[in-house]
Specification:
The protein is about 25% helix and about 25% strand. By secondary structure, it is of the alpha+beta class.
């Protein structure tokens, strides 16, 4: 079945590619830009508050005829008369699958609801009081039901649904059969609306000739619409339990001009075959495309990005009505080059886009005299941000799926680049993964998921290691308590062979990394050992003494067996011809390699390049763990040269830009390496009770770095002046600091002289 589904997906991609030949012009590349301001403060650390709401009064509603129709858009409206305005009125709202909320014609929520989990829906909480007025009010919602039965990021209920409940003093607005409902006839469903089976979303096809008029306007007459049908009380029925979303509502940056929008203002398309107009966004972003045109009825405008043909990404089609009109395709897409295929007879009034994204600030920074590294750090950050929305995702175009290897890498990157509201997305992902654990004790690699199942053991082992990393940066002991049992039980699934190595666990996909020449025996045993060491530390933190003897015994056995893999050229099993960089890097990080072996391993890590961008991060970490920072820097510049020099703002899935996606967050590991190791900013106590600042001064003569810790912003700025270093460090109050500096350096901490620093 997976093979057939893949073939179908490739057919869709082929169709998209053929379409793009006729609809997309040459890309107009723009210089890389990603400018932002570091905030002066960041939110305090928060924990996920996805609490179940069980006391619903409102009903899930939909229309009668289209309950299970896929890719359908349904309009809802309710008139409410208010004599007194409440100071605050919290509306709890959910939909399968998405909704847009309007009060008195004003947009209140742009793309509400987050993707459902298995039997779990989420509700948003929004204060609608600022949008209300005395007298008659009109509440409108547009809901979009996907109904996808096979995808990588969403579990549908099997039917469309919308629920709204706002109860306050003297007012109760509840979705029920008194609401008016109508299918939005302008949204067209067809075979090619879903170009990629991995996505639950559909491409937008909107025929303005069939639209309902200005139905969001308070003066619109909805009386002829049918009454909604009630299907369940909130928290019951097919829709499952309802939990608060736990993560912020999306950040809406508003409609913006493309960088070259002005070139097409009042532009009349006169060519017989139409025109392919490419407009540019400053960087790869999640956005919804907008147009305002003057046209006769029946003209078809096709909107795509550079990702449409490459990965089978989503697109939008708009069919014009008569006269001046505007349209925004509400299903988000991503890219930095947007092509509008506009037919003859259409006059462009305006082309714009609305950027949306996860509501967290860019709070970290890294800058040195090497623009290559500065650009790579910024591209890593941009790549990370475009993979954050309802969940961490591997890529924003082909899948939008939470693969746990990717999620682990993304979490580590946020610790050095984004404020703490971003941590909620990781916590939500962990909760989703734990909700899928059953009596097999398997940790699934992609959740939520429909119609498929993935366990990639090495990604799950990396994830267990990531659990401890998260604790080290946040100090959240309760988090360790939540993940511990799942971690130890998963590790117990590995059995030992007669050679004191683990028996190979294939999972549902035998995947050590992209690329060839992977030494699976050496890689898997190192991952298991590394995860055991991590879990042993977690056991000590929360007092699980009963597991430590098992862990210690298993580690001792693997360490004994792993010695047999050592050769004069490095660690290597009989399954491969030459030592693998990934296996040898993991041996260092796991603690299986000894310092005496480092020179041999260093040779492997400086001459072998099997790692994909995903595993490259762990190779670089190993080089830094061995104290080989110059070699790490050189390897970064060698391996990432193509990505940095490419006139594109994000990093690729593979080393070859055209082999996979153009935006894959797992490629951003150098961001961590630069801030953590080159700038040398790391927590010495869990949650930054103490911070170590030990820059590698030999790499750069000047460096500025900001790290957004859970205690606040930590900044380092140093310059080499007349052969000596001038170093300034700023930290939040209540944090112990250990600054390493060369002899004779002038060091200041929070504006005061810092004398007792260790020699670097």
């Amino acid at each position: 079945m997976r093979f057939l589904a893949t073939i179908v997906s490739y057919i869709y991609i082929a169709v998209a590619f053929l379409t793009s030949i006729f609809s997309c012009g040459d890309l107009q590349m723009v210089p890389f830009r990603n400018e932002y301001q570091i905030p002066s403060s960041i939110p305090e650390y928060q924990t996920l508050s996805s609490e179940q709401k069980s006391d619903w009064q409102a009903k899930w509603i939909w229309d009668k005829e289209n309950l299970t129709e896929k890719n359908v858009w349904i309009c809802f409206t309710k008139k409410v008369s208010l004599n007194n305005l409440p100071a605050s009125l919290i509306a709890n709202i959910s939909a399968d699958s998405k909704y847009w909320l309007y009060v008195n014609g004003e947009n209140v929520v742009f793309e509400g609801s987050i993707k459902r989990g298995r039997g779990i829906a989420y509700f948003d909480s929004v204060d609608i009081a600022p949008y209300l007025k005395e007298g008659e009010n009109v509440i409108c919602a547009l809901a979009w039901y996907w109904g996808s039965e096979k995808n990588y990021s969403y579990n549908g209920s099997g039917q469309g649904g919308f629920i709204f409940e706002a109860v306050g003093e003297g007012v109760a607005i509840l979705s029920d059969s008194s609401w008016k409902v109508k299918k939005h006839s302008a949204y067209v469903n067809s075979l090619f609306n879903q170009p990629n089976y991995r996505l639950p979303e559909y491409s937008i096809h909107y025929d303005a000739r069939e639209e309902l008029g200005d139905w969001l306007n308070a003066s619109y007459d909805h009386s002829a619409w049918e009454n909604a049908t009630e299907y369940a009380v909130g928290g019951e029925g097919a829709y499952g339990k309802l939990y608060s979303r736990g993560i912020p509502l999306l950040k809406d940056y508003g409609l913006k001009d493309y960088e070259n929008s002005k070139d097409y203002v009042n532009h009349a398309v006169k060519k017989l075959g139409g025109e392919k107009i490419t407009v540019n966004i400053p960087y790869n972003a999640q956005f919804t495309p907008y147009l305002k045109v003057i046209a006769p009825a029946g003209k078809k405008i096709y909107i795509s990005t550079e990702n449409t043909a490459i990965t089978g990404a989503l697109s939008a089609t708009y069919v014009t009505k008569e006269g001046e009109q505007e349209f925004e395709a509400l299903g988000w897409i991503n890219g930095e080059h947007v092509t509008y295929k506009i037919p003859r007879g259409v006059t462009i009034v305006a082309l714009k886009y609305r950027e949306t994204g996860y509501n967290s600030n860019f709070a970290g920074n890294f800058k040195c005299e090497d623009e290559f590294m500065n650009t790579l750090w910024q591209k890593s950050l941009r790549t990370l941000y475009v993979t954050m929305r309802d969940n961490y995702m591997d890529c924003p175009d082909r899948e939008r799926a939470q693969w746990w290897g990717d999620a682990t890498s993304e979490m580590i990157m946020t610790m050095y680049s984004m404020d703490s509201s971003s941590y909620l997305l990781y916590q939500k992902g962990v909760e989703a993964m734990l909700s899928h654990v059953d009596d097999t004790n398997v940790l699934q690699t992609v959740v939520p998921i429909s119609g498929d199942y993935f366990e990639l053991p090495v990604q799950q082992l990396a994830g267990i290691i990531g659990f401890l990393t998260y604790y080290e940066y946040t100090g959240d002991k309760a988090f360790i308590e939540r993940v511990y049992n799942a971690s130890i039980n998963y590790l117990k699934l590995w059995e030992m062979d007669e050679g004191n190595l683990v028996k190979h666990r294939e999972g549902s996909w035998d995947w050590p990394d992209w690329g060839k020449k992977a030494d699976m025996t050496a890689i898997e045993n190192a991952w298991v050992y590394y995860a055991l060491t991590t879990t042993e530390k977690m056991a000590e933190i929360i007092g699980k003494a009963e597991d430590i003897s098992f862990i210690a015994g298993r580690k001792q056995a693997i360490a004994s067996g792993y010695k047999a893999l050592w050769t004069e050229d490095g660690y290597k099993s009989n399954d491969v011809k030459k030592p693998d960089d990934r296996a040898n890097a993991l041996a260092v990080l796991a603690g299986l390699a000894t310092p005496e072996q480092y020179p041999t391993i260093l040779n492997v890590l400086t001459t072998t390049k099997n790692a994909s961008p995903y595993m490259e991060y762990y190779v670089l970490e190993a080089l830094c763990a061995m104290g080989k920072y110059q070699e790490a820097k050189e390897r970064i510049k060698d391996r990432y040269e193509g990505m940095v020099n490419e006139d594109y703002s994000t990093l690729w899935e593979f080393w070859d830009a055209w082999q996979g996606t153009m935006n894959h967050a797992w490629s951003g590991g150098p961001l961590v390496i630069m801030s953590k190791h080159f700038a040398g900013i790391t927590p010495l106590g869990a949650g930054y009770e103490k911070v170590k600042i030990a820059p590698q001064y030999e790499l750069y003569d000047s460096l500025n770095c900001t790290v957004p810790s859970v205690k606040g912003l930590i900044t380092l700025d140093y310059k080499k002046v007349d052969g000596n270093y001038v170093i300034n460090v700023t930290t939040p109050e209540g944090i112990a600091v250990e600054i390493h500096a060369p002899q004779g350096a002038e060091v200041k901490l929070n504006g005061k002289a810092y004398e007792n620093h260790p020699a670097n």
